[in-house]
UniProtKB/TrEMBL annotation:
Pfam families: DAO. Keywords: Membrane, Oxidoreductase, Transmembrane, Transmembrane helix. One of its GO terms (molecular function) is oxidoreductase activity. The keyword Mitochondrion does not apply. The chain crosses the membrane at residues 7-24. Its EC number is 1.-.-.-. Residues 6-335 form the FAD dependent oxidoreductase domain. Signal peptide: none annotated. It comes from the Bacteria. The keyword NAD does not apply. This is NAD(P)/FAD-dependent oxidoreductase.
């Protein structure tokens, strides 16, 4: 890298902000662009916070997805603590996730068990296993007994259950620590409420400097441009001369974020594998609840997907619909519903290589191993993959640039 460098980052989510902070601490001047009012305003704030080890992807028996997400998931805690300068412990769920196999799952209970055991063997044998949200070096998959399963549900739609070492983090808590961490870095300039429209070489071709066209004018030149957008990344790639290939999907999903009046002790549950739902109990009072088909607002393979059509009626009906679906399978969800003090429906865009519907075992969305970095000279496009893989990918990208 030249002695004095300026780098532009498009997108102020977890990938963009992690990259910006790592670069700034190397003495690099960084300009971050995002159309939101502040960093961490979209999918990086409004998601379930599952720090994936691969247990969700039992429809990918090749284990390619697990092999991609495990290293990033295990490094997530130490890297986040380095980035935000404080312990992540208050944001971590206190109990291991329970996976419940739905009768209409795209994989059988036996397949799910065999798959998870292979995944968890990889986890406990990994050199970073002890660095996970909770020490996973001795982790095992524990099939729920008949009595344990009966204590969770009486529904005939749930045919098996497994305790796994996976846990989650409260993404709002993480977001609220990233914002001041960004502000504390004097080498980072933040250009918020700025929509990026194009990226082009400024001079000397793709290996020279680059400029960014935005709603607020032209910025640059920059030595490098890093495109870490989820919404609109492919369209900007095209303006840069990096033509998208293959298949992909842009999905806009909404979920329920809720705080209770009193602590409610419930497990964290994932209903798998397919278009079902999940429940995260972060600390006894802060919860995330979702039902996939209810919250899916846009599913598009367009380069520039249409904006979601969100009506007041959508927002009003969605909480009850999510509760009804979850409660029909897990009666104890009624405790969360009864104790609700305040709630909000929030969501964001998710980009994935692959297409199809999750109820189809052959959908390529059941494998999430195809993500990473593409380069065109000094223009870099980043498909983050999953929320927990972003910090490790950002660290590796910065080391490669330096």
């Amino acid at each position: 890298m030249r002695k004095t460098s300026r780098i532009a980052i498009l997108g102020a989510g977890i990938m963009g902000c992690s990259t910006a902070i790592f670069l700034a601490r190397k003495g690099i001047e960084v300009s971050v662009f995002d159309m939101a009012e502040q960093p961490f305003s979209a999918a990086s704030r409004w998601n379930e916070g599952k720090i994936h080890l691969g247990c969700l992807y039992s429809a990918d028996p090749s284990l390619s997805t697990a092999d991609r997400v495990i290293p990033g998931g295990l490094k997530f805690r130490p890297l986040i603590e380095e980035l935000v300068g404080t312990s992540l412990a208050p944001a971590i769920t206190s109990e291991d996730d329970l996976y419940l196999c739905h009768r209409k799952s795209v994989t059988s209970a036996a397949e799910m068990k065999t798959y998870m055991e292979k995944v968890v063997e990889r986890v406990r044998n990994h050199p970073d296993a002890a660095q996970y949200l909770a020490d996973a070096s001795g982790s095992r998959v524990h099939p729920l007994s008949t009595s344990e399963l009966a204590g969770l549900t009486s529904s005939t739609d749930i045919v098996a259950g497994f305790r796994t070492p996976e846990r989650s983090v409260d993404t709002n808590w993480v977001a609220e620590r990233f914002i001041p961490a960004m502000d504390a870095e004097a080498s980072i300039q933040q250009f918020m409420k700025t929509r990026i429209t194009a990226v082009r070489p400024a001079k000397d071709g793709i290996d020279g400097k680059w400029e960014i066209e935005t709603s607020e004018g032209i910025f640059g030149p920059f030595d490098y441009v890093i495109n870490s957008l989820w919404q609109g990344r492919l369209a900007i790639d095209r303006t840069a001369g990096l033509e998208p290939t293959g298949v992909w999907s842009h999905r806009y999903r909404q979920s329920l974020f809720l705080r209770t009046k009193e602590p409610v002790h419930t497990p964290c549950v994932v209903i798998a594998t397919g278009p079902f739902g999940d429940i995260k109990n972060y600390n006894g009072r802060d919860f995330y609840l979702s039902w996939y088909s209810d919250g899916l607002r846009v599913d598009s393979s367009d380069i520039s997907p249409p904006e979601p059509h969100l009506t007041a009626q959508n927002l009003e009906n969605l909480p009850n619909s999510i509760f009804d679906h979850l409660q029909s399978l897990l009666p104890w969800v009624a405790q969360i519903r009864e104790q609700a003090e305040r709630s909000t429906i929030q969501g964001g865009w998710v980009f994935a290589v692959g297409q199809g519907v999750l109820s189809d075992r052959d959908s390529t969305l059941h494998s999430r191993s195809e993500y990473g970095i593409q380069r065109l000279g000094n223009y870099i496009s980043v498909d983050t993959g999953k929320y927990p893989t972003a910090p490790a990918m950002a660290r590796a990208l910065v080391e490669a640039i330096i």
